[in-house]
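User: I want to check something. If I give you two sequences, will you return the structure for each one separately, not as a complex?

Assistant: Yes, each is folded on its own. Here is the first sequence with its structure:
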Amino acid sequence: MIKATWNQVRIESAQEVIAVHQRCYGRGQAILELEHYLPVLAQKPRAAKNAAVVRQLGSVWEEARQVLCGQRTDGYRELVKILLLHRSYPHHVLTAALKEALALGRPTATVVRQILLNASCKKPPQLPVSEALAGYVVEAADLARYDALLKEASQ
């Protein structure tokens, strides 16, 4: 059953709400929901190159689309992997992570996922340090020693 009110359209089946959409009154306008396109994009990732739903997501997503699809032959697949993260993360959080990945020059699904995981991790509490240990300084190891050992071992 479809119920249309002045501001929304509801689709129901046996007392279960399947979908609720805001009504669009503008001529020639369309309201696109990314969640509806994710299964199709997962099946046909090449469609992400020119999908209107991807273009409406904002400038960060447009930049990622241009970078990924312009520089890599499989960039559209990587873009879809990032888009599919919408299933697990809210749009604004995912957009912030994508923006950070673009700033790092690594807009890949792996990097975006790692940024999201890093943001969700809690930092351990600071432990008090006794006065006896507070002045103790540990010198950094000279890693050149390991290179010398590797050279000797390979000869």
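And separately, the second sequence with its own structure:
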Amino acid sequence: MIAPPNTPPVIFDQARRLAARGRMRRLQQRADAARFVLADMVDDVLERLAFLRAAPERALVIGDWTGALARALAAGGAEVLRADPVPGPEELALDEERPFPHANKFDLVVSLSLLDTVNDLPGALVHLRNALVPGGLGLASFMGAGSLPAVRQAMLAADGERPAARLHPMVDVRAGAQLLQRTGWSDPVADGHALKVRYSSLARLVGDLREQALGNVLASLAPPLDRGAYARAQAAFAAQADADGRVTETFEIVTLSGRRPPG
């Protein structure tokens, strides 16, 4: 069957994406589970809202399974609806690539650590915009281009002359700004910042990715690394270590913001 001309390419597998997020929720029951990417995004959103002196009355928060952002907004007097592709007990199930059930309702919509793995990013941005009242503010943060250079180098070494697709294609700040303009946002802004985390082993880094649902959910499944390939990956990762024997990995966070045009 030939797909309609406007159908976006299938880069990510929806079932794998949901499974990874479900696994993340289970792993996060551990007291020492990594959650620094989401925590950084929540803090960044709160700083932006404080700078803008924004005090939303009705907010939709998507992807913050911790509830930290919702609690902070509620403490400021907002009515908050929480949603997630894999919802917890206090969350609405939501598919970012379909129209939201609550359109034209919120004066703030926030999406955290999700839009980097949707197949139709322009469509998802339209749905976020349409959930807002005219003049409402939208914020979306996700992993962007420039992330995980140490892992990328290790995987290239593991695969040798026949590299496989093991890490996601990612959006950079410039492309994000263009997407906001293309999808009809007013006052579009795209920016980014980097988180630097030091690791003593590739295994610990991979564990952090799994615990935060940041692993591979590509539709084209790469063959698993055999013992020899994994040994090459470990060696290439260790070769990037500093004098203390640790490798600094980069998590580049891209944030898109804008408003629904008035009228």
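Because they were folded independently, the notes below concern the second chain alone. The chain has one domain: 14-258. The CA atoms of residues 124 and 130 lie 10 Å apart.
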